[in-house]
Amino acid sequence: MTTQQTNESTIRQWDTMPRKVMEAMEPDGDFAKRHLINPVLLRMLGDVRGLRVLDAGSGQGYLSRMLATRGAHVTAVEPTDAMFTYSQEKEQALQQGVHHVQADLSRLPDLGGRYDAVLCSMVLPTIPDWKPAMRACVQALRPGGLFVFSVNHPAFEQLLATWRKHGEYRLSRYLEEYEIPLTRATDFHRPISAYLNELTALGCRLREIAEPGLEPPIAREAADTESGIESYVHLPNFLIVAAERP
Ligand SMILES: C[S@@+](CC[C@H](N)C(=O)[O-])C[C@H]1O[C@@H](n2cnc3c(N)ncnc32)[C@H](O)[C@@H]1O
User: Based on the number of CB atoms within 10 Å of its own CB, is 214 exposed (0-12), middle (13-18) or buried (19 or more)?
Assistant: First the structure.
């Protein structure tokens, strides 16, 4: 893929995140996160009590706080000033013991010790130079540790927008890598094989792939306010992967 974007330029884009958008994510994310992503991430991670967990690309930090509430010792890595500062302020208010580090995952400093689990939710598709970021996540694990990551499902990335326009999903480009301009930042489309082959090249053993769908009653409840939400019942907007470091 040819792109003008660098990790620095996309981090600057993410740094424009307004505070009210961060606040709207409290306490457990937006609709898709609450109903499709979080339940799978938490199930895959299992009982995190007493475990060292790295939240890689932690954003405004809601997942770090959910994990800390469940008894994990959490380190949260986030590169932007805006979201790093917001998460630190939350930590000062809540005193959950979440340790915050401001860094680009592709140039992750030594965090001091290995982690039992690394969570990297909706982050890899935002990073132009993503392979070093995935490598850093895997290398942060102890042997036998669990790497859980989620991405927009590469086959159904623009599900809601496409469904609203056509009443079905349409996709014309899949195999090549390309940029997807979002409201504030740029995402990068890569085929599923790019993520899974890199995981394998890093020596990881795949444990599970999830393609969560929305429960029909929840879609019916949300239908009045979220047009096209029934698409989430029929097609997966997210791909969630759990793998083990040998
Ligand atoms: C879609 S948000 C997801 C945030 C959080 N994981 C969540 O699930 O709410 C993408 C996040 O990746 C972060 N990010 C972008 N480039 C990054 C990089 N090179 N290293 C680490 N994080 C990065 C952004 O700042 C942003 O917080």
Answer: buried
CATH at residue 206: 3.40.50.150
Count of structural domains, the chain: 1
Q: Which atom of ligand 1 lies nearest, measured to the CA of 120?
A: 6
SS3 at position 29: coil
Q: Which residue ranges in the chain fall short of pLDDT 70?
A: 1
- If one residue of 14, 35, 152, 239 were mutated to test the ligand 1 pocket, choosing by the most ligand atoms within 8 A of its CB, it would be 14
Q: What does the DSSP 8-state code read for residue 124?
A: G
Show the domain range for 39.
Answer: 7-244
Does residue 152's CB lie within 6 angstroms of at least one atom of ligand 1? no
pLDDT tens readout for residues 153-192: 999 999 999 999 999 999 999 999 999 999 999 999 999 9
Q: Is 142 part of a structural domain of the chain?
A: yes
Ligand 1 mean position, distance from CA 126 (Å): 7
